[in-house]
């Protein structure tokens, strides 16, 4: 739902890349922070989309 939102594709890719980079670096704290950030961003957009319906 959120990936099809305008201006979401590039930030989502960057967020997922940050998660993957942290995992590759074996940095669980950074991976968790990046994953939380990604979910929070998606949730924020989803809330706006659901409210506009």
Write the layout of secondary structure elements.
Layout: H1 9-24, H2 28-51
Protein name: FCD domain-containing protein
Organism: Mesorhizobium opportunistum
Keywords: DNA-binding, Transcription, Transcription regulation
Written overview of the protein:
This protein is an all-alpha fold. It has a domain at 13-47. Helices cover 75% and strands 0% of the residues. The protein is built from two helices and no strands. The longest helix is centred in the last third of the chain and has 24 residues, at 28-51. The relative contact order is 0.17. The model has no long low-confidence stretch (mean pLDDT 92).
Provide the descriptors you would attach to this structure in a database record:
mainly alpha, 0% strand
- State the helical fraction: over 70%
Runs with pLDDT <50, length 5+? Answer: none
Cα(first) to Cα(last) distance is: 13 Å
Continuous helix count: 2
Radius of gyration: 12 Å
The helix/strand order is HH
The count of strands amounts to 0
Structural class: mainly alpha
Q: Name the assembly state.
A: single chain
Largest sheet, in brief, is: none
On the 0-100 scale, what is the average pLDDT? 92
The amount of beta strand, in percent, is: under 5%
Could you say which overall geometry the principal axes of the C-alpha atoms support?
elongated
């Amino acid at each position: 739902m959120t990936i099809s939102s305008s201006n979401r594709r590039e930030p989502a890719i960057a967020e997922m890349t940050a998660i993957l980079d942290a995992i590759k670096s074996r940095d669980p704290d950074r991976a968790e922070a990046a994953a939380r950030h990604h979910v929070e961003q998606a949730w924020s957009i989803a809330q706006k989309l659901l409210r506009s319906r």
